[in-house]
Amino acid sequence: MSICEDFFSSNPQPTNYDILSNKIKDFCQLHKHDKVVLITSGGTAVPLERHTVRSLENFSQGTRGSSSAEYFLKSGYAVIFLYRLKSLEPFTRHFSDINIFDWLVVDNENESSQIKVGSQYVSTLLPILKKYKEVMNSGKLLSIPYISLSDYLWLLRAACNALSSLNGKALLYLAAAVSDFYIPLDKMPTHKIQSDNGAPNISLHLVPKILEPLVHSWVPNAYVVSFKLETNTSLLHSKARRALEKYHHKMVIGNILQTRKYQVIIVTENEDYDIVLSEEEKVQNVEIESKIVEYLCKKHDLFLNS
Questions:
Q1: Are the CB atoms for 172 and 221 separated by under 8 Å?
Q2: What is the 3 state secondary structure string of 158-186?
Q3: Helices and strands: H and E segment counts in the chain
Q4: pLDDT digits (tens, 9 = 90+) for 176-220
Q5: Total-model pTM
Q6: Which of 219, 78, 206 is nearest to 156 (CA)?
Q7: CB burial class (10 A; 0-12, 13-18, 19+) of residue 209?
């Protein structure tokens, strides 16, 4: 048994796995003639106990994934959005830092009173609400939540299995911040770790490299894009190139933690390409994801027509 299969055999499916995997299958069947992108977004939790009170977090707000989803939808893709619960989502991300009650007013404070959006906020809310309603009415967005690392990997494999029949029309945009370490279920205490017993001795195991079976077995004909995040500029390019050579997928998007909102590098088999926001674009609040998705859509079309 491979290390990857051993992970799945020793970590149970999410409790709602059948419901969510069937939703993904139905969505892929509905859009079998369309280009479909699977976007993974947000961080993962690694439980320290079976009845989880504490967990190790690979934190990510989900900014890149949620904003990219909007640009893929704008480009005509159907989108499966596999995201960490309570991380940013398409459209609602624009209002993540507001208190909704500040935007609402009560009209006629009596038995027939109504709730309305404050007039000063309508111009901000209306265009985003229209886009959201248009997308939801088209049936082109499926959001699938997860919390733990185990849930994420189970649902990722389910999505890949459903997408495999789409062959090259399937694009995988693996932007989630996935933990490199976990605690096997058989080494995890059942109940809350007690501080009375002193500092716990926790042994972390390496998470199997899922990209290898994903590229070669789960969706061998899909256009697979992975991400590489570093804090050291001198390491980024070589590690992105090494990942591409190791797993033989189509593209690695590399970014530095400190500059990820304004600059990325694109590494493919035959090309290295920088996407950088100009000072003017920064002032205009251009999102770098718009440029990433535009570039990626062109590459995907070339792949489909080759």
A1: no
A2: HHHHHHHHHHHHEEEEECCCCCCEECCHH
A3: 10, 14
A4: 999 999 988 888 888 988 888 888 888 898 999 999 999 999 999
A5: 0.95
A6: 219
A7: middle
- Residue 288 DSSP SS3: helix
Average pLDDT of the chain, as a whole number? 94
Under 8 Å between Cβ of 172 and 81: no
Tokens of 15: 């409790």
Amino acid symbol at 3: I
Asked if 27 and 227 count as a contact pair (C-beta separation under 8 A), the reply is no
301 alpha carbon, distance to own chain's centre: 22
- Please, is 138 exposed, middle or buried when counting C-beta atoms within 10 Å of its C-beta (0-12, 13-18, 19+)? exposed
Sign of CA dihedral 32, 17, 58, 43: positive
Greatest mean pLDDT range, 113-122, 226-235, 282-291: 282-291
Q: Give the pLDDT of residue 1.
A: 57
SS3 114: strand
Q: What are phi and psi of 90, to 5 degrees?
A: -55, 140
